[in-house]
Amino acid sequence: MNMPSRPVVLCLSGHDPSGGAGLQADIEALLAQGCHAAPTVTALTVQSTVDVVDFRVLDREWVLAQAHAVIADLPVAAVKLGMLGSVEMVETVLEVMRSLPGVPLVCDPVLRAGGGGTLGKDDVGFAMRERLLPIAAIATPNLPEARILAELPDGSADECAEKLLPYCRHLLITGGHGDEQQVHNRLYSRDGARHSFTCERLPGSYHGSGCTLASALAGRLALGEDLASAVQTALSYTWRTLRDAEAPGKGQYVPRRLPLDFCS
Q1: Which domain holds residue 157?
Q2: How many CA atoms lie within 13 A of 146 on its CB side?
């Protein structure tokens, strides 16, 4: 007996061999939402739960071939972007999206690894702001990434949003990078609407939290949830994965995106 198909989310992101971030995070988070992940590799990295050591961006023709194979075969309901690593890959994503008119794009501007290592030159952030944010349904930078995109090294979330909203319709700037007891995640919309989502600050540092959030959000949009509700659902899910995180290596905690009995 054939079961109803799960919504398909095309993920364009890098591979993290530690399994904490990148495409593995995308796959696990989307499985948890009841979606099917179609992972398209944009870059290979040398990294661990401690930090990123090196990376190599794939040839654009390989990335296009992967994405077009998925698009020709599967009904893509949403697209999630992670690490791109080069301006050329930004242009590659634009070409992919021309084949998916009307499909929501969740842009996670991965510019730095959790351990602080760079995952692209400074011009990648500029290209993402100028070229990708305008076609995204929503961008999900953390505050350090929002500062890079807005070119405001010491800017507040509100200041970064003011600079970035002319480029994108919706912007979710996540907190948790300061010393505050409560984490404030702020959703800004170009029409002036604002929502603030507050959660308890958890101890520790986490590897792959941004990937988890963006993928969960893409999954909720693929399922047809409206944007504000999808943001709330994705944030709540991500917080639970951090609360239950484990420390498999010598560095950051890894979110537990699937329940222990998932495959039982």
Answers
A1: 8-244
A2: 31
* Tokens (6 digits) for 235: 């944030």
pLDDT tens sequence across 115-141: 444 555 568 989 999 999 999 999 999
Q: Are 251 and 25 in contact (CB under 8 A)?
A: no
Bridge-based pairing state of the strands 105-107 and 52-57:
unpaired
Both tokens of 89, joined, read: 């890959």
Q: Which of 171, 172, 197, 234 is nearest to 25 (CA)?
A: 234
Distance CA 176, CA 29 (A): 20
Measuring CA to CA, which residue among 112, 65, 99, 95 is closest to residue 207? 112
pTM: 0.94
Task: Give the contacts of 57 (CB within 8 A, at least 6 positions apart).
Answer: 42, 43, 84, 85, 86, 88, 89
**Is there a domain that residue 254 lies in?**
no
Residue 183 lies in a domain: yes
